[in-house]
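Posting for a labmate who doesn't have an account.
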Amino acid sequence: MKLQKIVSRLQELHPKEIDLSLDRIQNLCKRLGNPQDKLKAISIVGTNGKYSTIQAMFAILKEANLKCNIYTSPHIKKINERFVFNNQELNDDDLASLFEEIEKANNNEPITFFEILTTAYFLKASQYPDNINLIETGLFHRFDATNILKNNLASVVTSIGLDHLDWLPENEQTIEKIIYEKTSTLLNSNIIVAKQSTKKITDNIKKTISSNNSNKVFYNENYSFTVRENNFFYYEDQLGGIKLPMPNVKGQFQLENISTAIATLRSIKNFVIKDTQIQQGIIKIDSIGRLQEIKSGKLKDLVKENKLFVDGSHNSLGAKVLNEYLQSLDCNKHIILGMMANKDHNDYISYFKGISTLTTIDIPNQPNSIKGKELKDKLNNFTNIIYKETVQDAISSIPVKENDIILITGSLYLVGEVLNVN
C-alpha cells in the first residue's frame, strides 16, 4: 500500500506522461551527485527485441558469475520488474524507500514519471559500482531519460521499425527519423547492430552512425548464426564459432536476439566469458510475456490439453516474427487480440496468415486501449472474427480441436492483465 501511494504521488508531478527533454533528469541527478556517471553500462536501443536481448545477456552473465543491475520498461505484472539490482528484483519496501529519496530530492518540481523511475534506477545502481548495468532505452533514445550516460561499455541496436509514430510530427513519421532518434547520439564504445528487417534500414543505420568512432559490429558481416539439425544452432563471429543448444525460449526471432546478446558480450574486451557459460546461459533465459507458454493456472485450466501462449508484440515487426513462428507449427491457430488505441490495428493483424479464429477483447484497467468491440469493427477484412469482453470468455468461446493452440497478443499491457488473471 505504501508503494502504491508514493507511485500515485509521483505520477502527478507532470501533466504529461511523456515530455521529451533531458533537462529535468539532468538537474535531479546533479542534486544526487550524478549517480549515472558511476555505472558500467550496456545500453539497448531499438524497436523490438530489447527486453529479450537483455534477458539473454543476463542469463549468460549470471553463468559467468557476474552480477547485474537491470532497467527495463514497461513492467508486465508489477513495477518492481523494472528494478533489478545484484541479480534480484527490488522488494516493495526497498523500492518505496528509494522513491521517497528521489521524491525528496526532486522537491515537488515538475518531472515525468519515467524520469523519476530512471533517476531512481541510477541512484540505486550506483551503490553497486562493480555490477554490469543492462539499461533499456524508452520511447526514443535521443531525448530519452536514459540518455544522460557519459560513457558505456556498449550500445546494442535491436530491430528498428515503425512504432510510436504519434509522438512524431506528421511530416516526420518515417523510418529514417526513427533511426536518427534512436542512433544519432550513441556513445563512443562498441555498437552492435542486430539483424534488421530490410537492407535499407541497415544501410540507414550505418549512415547515421558513420561519424561515430565506436567499434561497430553488424549482423551478417561480423557475426551470424545458422540453425542446424539435431536441435542445435551454430553461432560465429571474428573470435570463432560456438555450437549451441536450442534455447528455452521459442521462435526464430529469439535466436536472433540471443546471437546479438552473445556478439555484444564478446565485443567487450575486458569480459572473459567461456563458451560453456554461453551454452548454459541460453537454456535458462527468463522472458516474461514474449511468446511465453502458460503451463498452469486459471486460464490454462480453461484450455485443458491445448497450448496457451501470451505475447506482447504490438507493431508490424512483432507481428511479422510472431507469424513466422506460427507458420512453423502444423496445427490450427486461434488469436485473442487486445490493443492500445494508438496502434495501426489493421496493419498489425495483416501479418497473420492462416488463422482459424480471431477474438477481440477489452484490455481492463487501460484507459488508452481500444475497446474490443470497436477493434472488431475496424478489422472488418478479417473473416471469422468475434468480440468477447474478457479473456476468460474469449478462451471459452473458441472451438478448439486436438493440438490447436491459442495465442493472446497485441499489447504488453494485455499480457500483464492476462498473467495477473491467470
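Reply:
Got it, the C-alpha cells are right above this. The chain has two domains: 2-281, 292-421.
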